[in-house]
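Running low. Invent one:
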Amino acid sequence: MVARRRKRAARDAEEGIPSPPGYSAIPIKFSEKQQASHYLYLRAHSVREGTKSTWPQKRTLFILNVPPYCTEECLSRLLSPCGPIQSVELQEKPDLAESSKEPKSKFFHPNPVLGFQVAYVVFQKPGGVLAALTLKGPLLVSTESHPVKSGVHKWISDYADSVPDPEALRLEVDSFMEAYDQKIAEEEAKAKEEEGVPDDEGWVKVTRRSRRPVLPRTEAASLRVLEREKQKRARKELLNFYAWQHRETKMEHLAQLRKKFEEDKQRIELMRAQRKFRPY
């Protein structure tokens, strides 16, 4: 493998293709009309000994300098002659260690990367990686049979795709909430089983449970909670709509207290004058 990489790097150097050490350079073009080539830098994915990786060894191709117009479908089509592909994933930066992968959502996803990206291409057989490292270009991203949208057409398509189907969105949200409720129920059942059971060192884990009942996850209950919060905010906003109104309310309250105090003083003086005041 190392000898093949060196041979490939030497050949690229002779042909004038820029290639970093350890990488193979493959030129690609957006279409036949484009004269200048863009280069993808490929190498077999590998990690240090003793380090776990999310991607399978010997079957994963690591690609640098992937342009924004080259999508996962484009990479899969360009590399499909090398062998059957299991998965293609674009990322902003490489994965340094094993990390948990959450399932991707069609509707809820982070902001797309606007610049260049890296790609991980997993082949079904190790021979696909070796064949990809020996590819010759230029490879065309947009062809007549597989056109790639750009410019205004791409913006219109992205906007149309950003408007979700309400029914499909509801189904995905319901599925996610069912999986989440099941996960929480399993965690609570496991915690209940372990409650009061000492560990290897004889310690017993004590957990705090809230006695407050949990609201059911229904649309009606959610609407009632939102309505109560809305009414509470409205009362607070009306009470403290202006700062000067708040100050005036305080001043009026103090004036009423002073007036009542003076009236009580006069009543006490009158009762003393009539000798009917008996405080004890």
Summary: The chain has seven helices and six strands.
